[in-house]
């Protein structure tokens, strides 16, 4: 509490002090209940006579702004209405404001450079969106005024039915939501209590971590390797922590790009059955497979309603539609539907009607076939470029679908350091530690291949590889050891 008194001013010192305290009380800077400094202490601090402070406090007390309390000294009161009139007191919202993630600013600065290549995005390049059929269907759906009303709480019936048919379940097991993010949020609010434990892969989808954090649950990390979630050792974690849920990304993991091996899927389901462990299977990329057939979902192997499946049209059709769905046992669907009523009330009916027509008229199948083949060509181009240009010591996983490749740098390089170096050349990617802690994450980079166009991939990786080489040279001249192995980890 700092006050400045001006000895050259014609205003007496006690009035200056009174005015400054009054101003702070009325602006809310000194809220009710605040204890003012004891008279003697403040007098000493300001280098004035004690009577100066006593007079100031006495006048403030006369205005009803402070009160002398035995044993508490002088305490600020709620200002009387009259004292406040004409004074604008800015609203003081409680709680901390979230700081902007500095990484986002760094990436934006890199991407503003002319000729920049982004391996950092989490979406498709715009020319891959099915603009023409969506525009035609939106125009047609808009001819019918009923598409502009509220829809049912669990989603537009025909869309629920179409999704249910595609997944081999019944419509009452399907709930349409405005994005996977909302799905996960609602699951955490409906099925978890603060203090519960959830098992989460490390690294994992970054935005899930914020949800678990805000739900006040304890997150216990589970390792992931090139065959997906490491099931060995999981039973010990279940026995030790008694988790309510396991959150997993079995197909084309974000950020690792890996896929859960079939044997591990079987083991995981058996474990869930033995321990009544709920599994949340987040699968936005599952339909973007580069193999002849899709990988069976955990949900399709679920004998007892252990799995809550989440998927989305964000990665396959367009994130702007904000359409995702949950497949779960009907009582879970009902509970989550009720909770959604309090959150966003309904998903946009218009978008659901357009999407339903998109499915019914066969556009989705045609579109998915085209996207899979484009993404596979881009994945192959990325693999070739990595093999051609990356120096020894850099390794990567080969994804069988989805959007991402995970690349590991040799010690002692870190992805953040590389981002600074490659950023000067206009190449952006996501540093691994953004998705979790640990050495693996610090040396890892997530390279996206759904956003850069084919012709950008080779030159972009070449620039990235040169940046790695420059850093390795710096290390070598500083006496570091270069890595030995280079290439895909298969
Ligand atoms: C694994 C995973 N889950 C969920 C989402 C979010 O999808 P939506 O747009 O449906 O909220 C993403 C998006 O990056 C993702 O990678």
Short characterization:
With about 500 residues, the protein is of the alpha/beta class. It has helices at about 15-25, 40-45, 50-60, 80-85, 100-110, 130-140, 155-165, 180-190, 205-215, 235-240, 260-275, 330-345, 350-360, 365-390, 415-425, 440, 455-475; strands at about 65-70, 75, 115-120, 175, 195-200, 220-225, 230, 245-250, 280, 305-310, 325, 395, 405-410, 425-430, 430, 445-450, 485-490.
Would you mind describing this structure in some detail?
It is a single chain. This protein has 490 residues and is an alpha/beta fold. The chain folds into three domains: 13-84, Orthogonal Bundle (Arc Repressor Mutant, subunit A); 102-127 and 366-489, Aspartate Aminotransferase, domain 1 (Alpha-Beta Complex); 131-361, 3-Layer(aba) Sandwich (Aspartate Aminotransferase, domain 2). The protein is built from 17 helices and 17 strands. The protein has helices at 13-27, 39-46, 50-62, 81-84, 102-111, 131-141, 157-167, 180-191, 206-214, 234-241, 262-275, 330-343, 349-360, 363-389, 415-423, 439-442, 454-477, and strands at 66-69, 73-76, 117-118, 174-177, 197-202, 218-225, 228-229, 245-248, 278-282, 307-312, 324-327, 395-397, 404-408, 427-428, 430-431, 444-448, 487-489. The longest helix has 27 residues, at 363-389. The radius of gyration is 30 Å and the shape is globular. The mean pLDDT is 93. Residues 122, 179-181, 205, 249, 254, 282, 284, 312, 314, 319, 324 line the site of pyridoxal-5'-phosphate. Residues 122, 179-181, 205, 249, 254, 282, 284, 312, 314, 319, 324 line the site of pyridoxal-5'-phosphate (PLP).
